[in-house]
Amino acid sequence: MELKDAILERKSIRGYLDKPVPKEVLEDVLRLGTRAVSALNSQPWEFIVLTGDIMKKIGADNADCYVTGVPEDISDPPLDGIYRRRMIDIAKQLFAEMDIARENTEKREWWTQRGFRFFDAPAVILVMTDDSLEDAPTNFDLGAVVQNITLAAMEYGLGTCVEQQAVNYLRGIRKYLDIPEGKRFVVGIAIGYEDPDFPANRVVSQRADLADNTTWYGFE
Ligand SMILES: Cc1cc2nc3c(=O)[nH]c(=O)nc-3n(C[C@H](O)[C@H](O)[C@H](O)COP(=O)(O)O)c2cc1C
């Protein structure tokens, strides 16, 4: 796949076929992904890859935490201004495609719970790092590796959705997995073969024009 095509065609996939992803393919994706840049080549990423029953149990536990009002272990920071507007815009696009009306709380709850169940993908990559590392350079490096993984996945015909929801609750993760002390969860990446009929997968998110975020000097 051409790099430019992968960059242009990548989008968050929130509906997957019920088709397992071979471990070897996920290994290839992670090997390619971890060619990412990192500060001082520190490679501050660690991955836990889940599939099958254990993934379902953790997804169900996440959804249960949400439904029963367990406080989140990790929360999305609040957004203001243009950043909040963009968040609202993407939510509107998703709800429109999914035919979820604003007042339909039942369907909204269903949608949110799907997110906590990793969008019912066949696999999820949980990304964590070491607590001893400084947040700023580490978060930069983690962003780079996550983007690389989403692009590498496309070479294997796989879709992805980076999701904070995957690690908002850590109860199930701690219950079913053996997590050493001193680790910090960052994000999850749902991964699998795209369901071409799932409406939310039609959403193409907007981007600001370069004129809104780029300043040029010395070009004329
Ligand atoms: C750090 C991070 C956390 C995200 N968390 C979620 C999430 O919890 N649920 C979700 O549906 N999408 C989540 N997304 C996906 C974004 O909504 C998506 O990348 C953005 O709207 C742009 O759309 P695109 O990926 O289709 O280009 C997350 C993306 C990032 C980078």
How does the SSE layout of this entry go?
Blueprint: H1 3-9, H2 23-33, E1 46-51, H3 52-67, H4 81-98, H5 105-116, E2 123-130, H6 135-155, E3 159-163, H7 171-176, E4 183-192
Antiparallel strand pairs: 1-2, 2-4, 3-4
Helix pairs in contact: 2-6, 3-5
The site of flavin mononucleotide has 12 residues, from β3.
Give a short synopsis of this structure.
With 220 residues, the protein is of the alpha+beta class. Helix content is 41%, strand content 13%. It has a four-stranded antiparallel β-sheet with strand order 1-2-4-3.
The tally of helices reads 7
Q: What is the fold-level CATH name, i.e. the topology?
A: NADH Oxidase
| % residues in beta strands | 5-15%
CATH first level: Alpha Beta
**Ligand names:** flavin mononucleotide
Give the strand line-up of the largest sheet: 1-2-4-3
Radius of gyration: 18 Å
Shape: globular
What is the number of beta strands?
4
Amino- and carboxy-terminal Cα gap: 36 Å
Order of helices and strands: HHEHHHEHEHE
Uncertain stretches of 5 or more adjacent residues: none
- Tell me what the CATH architecture is: 3-Layer(aba) Sandwich
Helical content stands at: 40-55%
